Amino acid sequence: MPIVTFTEDAAAALASLPKPIKARVAEMIVRLAKWPQVSGAKALSGKLAGHYRLRTGDYRLQFRIIGKAVVIEQVGHRDGFYEG
Fold first, then answer.
1. Which residues of 26-38 are buried (b: 16+ CB within 10 A; e: fewer)?
2. Are strands 51-56 and 42-43 parallel, antiparallel or unpaired?
């Protein structure tokens, strides 16, 4: 089973989410611990090739796989999510 970790930015973004959204994102994190058997993960393309995203409603979680670790790099609302 992979280890799920966060970048500092992703951890800060997660902490600032509203409680109901934080709970939904927490469920996605539990799912990521079962990588690669994760339904709904989409491979990103272009400058984000090699990264993946999961979504819950209007919120996104961007991550990549490094060895046996799933590194969550970004958490946030879909508006402007892929620009940063």
1. eebbebbeebeee
2. antiparallel
Which tokens in the block code for residue 40?
A: 């709904």
Q: Considering the entire predicted model, what is its pTM?
A: 0.92
State yes or no: cis peptide before 36, omega within 30 of 0. Answer: yes
Q: Token pair of 44, please?
A: 């990103």
Answer whether residue 84 shows pLDDT above 70: no
Cα–Cα distance list, 60 to 1, 67 (Å): 23, 23
Sheet bearing 42-43, strands edge to edge: 3-6, 69-77, 59-66, 51-56, 42-43
